[in-house]
UniProtKB/TrEMBL annotation:
Transmembrane segments: none annotated. It comes from Pontibacter mangrovi. This is Tetratricopeptide repeat protein. TPR repeats lie at residues 253-286. SUPFAM superfamilies: TPR-like. PROSITE patterns: TPR. Keywords: Repeat, Signal, TPR repeat. It comes from the Bacteria. The keyword Lipid biosynthesis does not apply. Residues 1-19 form the signal peptide.
Length: 376
């Protein structure tokens, strides 16, 4: 009798397990036939039964079925914003149970890449509709799916900035830096956001210093760093740093251009002029040096003109014409520098506007009109 009861018990056990395995197989078959709602119902049963809930095949097909429902014209209505996360959890569970090289575990990477694309597309759609919170949420999920891909994090930073969530955007830029995405634009964006949130000077200077380690020739980062050196009464330290950098790399025109900028800030205009000229000798295509030389000469002319404008009539009759002639000389001196800068960067609007101004002051109406037409 005991033997009969034992046999019956075993038979019952086999029957239940077989039924649950059948649920998995039925899910696979329904998935193959395209009846995804039935496939999902079957596979959900299998995830809850003790005989199949720890099987990698169960979780792999749960992920596959849910994933294939996303965007499906018939079954897409059965999904919601949490579906991609459920897919991710299913594939992670597959690898946890099967390992990366198991029968199902080794199929996960391709499916994860597909999921990344699906979620990123959703994020972009929200982004294009300026639905920033949902876009950011999807970008964050895309990053979870593909932790080494920087695209989602970068666009999350853009979306956060557009949504005026500057602290959040800074966090995304920090994540990019941790991932090794250390482009100049990342440091530049982070600095600008720190400035917008009124971060401490020390915090901003740390970002600038880190950026300059990666991009020692960045004119923007160098100039911003100089600004904070000057703001904190560290001009001499900044000059020493620049001189050391120039001694180590005397053929780097950008360093001379930045030093000229620092000398300007210190009101040493003659020194700035000489350093800018040195930059053009080292690199005849250095836009910043030519542009700044043009500005220096133009401003000298404007200063002289302003003196004439402030004279009373009697004084003007005696000295005004001479001052205007002197101002014209400086305006004329600015022309070749602005023209060279325009040649280097034909579309730079500031250069075009300055050339229009100086041509107008020199009576070169045809040249001014020609550039005005280009600007408009």
């Amino acid at each position: 009798m005991k033997k009969v009861l034992l046999t019956a018990l075993v038979a019952g056990t086999i029957s239940v397990a077989s039924a649950q395995n059948s649920a998995v197989n039925s899910a696979v078959l329904n998935h193959k036939n395209g009846t995804l709602d039935k496939a999902l119902a079957d596979i959900e049963k299998a995830t809850e039964h003790k005989k199949t809930k720890e099987k990698p095949k169960t979780w792999f097909y749960r992920g596959v079925i849910l994933q294939d429902m996303i965007g499906n014209p018939i079954y897409g209505k059965n999904t919601d914003e949490n579906t991609p996360l459920e897919v991710l959890e299913s594939f992670n569970k597959t690898v946890e149970l099967d390992g990366e090289n198991g029968e199902y575990g080794k199929q996960v990477p391709e499916r994860m890449q597909m999921l990344y694309g699906q979620v990123l597309n959703q994020a972009v759609e929200f982004h294009n509709n300026q639905d920033w919170p949902n876009a950011i949420s999807k970008y964050e999920l895309a990053h979870k799916i593909s932790p080494e891909d920087t695209t989602a994090v970068l666009y999350a930073a853009y979306a956060s900035t557009a949504d005026n969530k500057y602290d959040q955007a800074i966090g995304f830029y920090d994540e990019l830096l941790k991932m090794g995405h250390t482009t100049e634009d990342v440091y530049k964006a982070k600095v600008q956001l720190q400035q917008a949130t009124e971060a401490s000077d020390d915090a901003i200077m740390q970002t600038l210093a880190a950026g300059l380690e990666q991009h020692p020739n960045s004119v923007y980062l160098m100039q911003e760093e100089l600004k904070y050196y000057l703001k904190n009464d560290r001009a001499d330290e900044a000059m020493a740093k620049l001189d050391k950098a120039i001694a180590a790399d005397p053929s780097n025109a950008s360093l001379y251009a930045v030093k000229g900028n620092l000398l300007e800030r210190k009101k040493d205009l003659d020194g700035a002029r000489e350093v800018y000229k040195k930059a053009t000798e080292v690199d005849p295509t250095n836009f910043d040096a030519y542009y700044n030389l043009g500005v220096l000469e133009f401003n000298r002319g404007t200063d002289v003109n302003n003196k004439a404008a402030k004279m009373d009539y009697a004084t003007y009759k005696k000295k005004g014409k001479a001052l205007e002639a002197e101002a014209k000389k400086y305006y004329q001196a600015s022309v070749p520098y602005f023209e060279k800068a325009h040649e280097i960067r034909p579309d730079d609007k500031s250069t075009i506007q300055n050339l229009i101004n100086v041509y107008t002051r020199l009576g070169r109406k045809a040249d001014a009109d020609k550039l005005s037409a280009k600007l408009n």
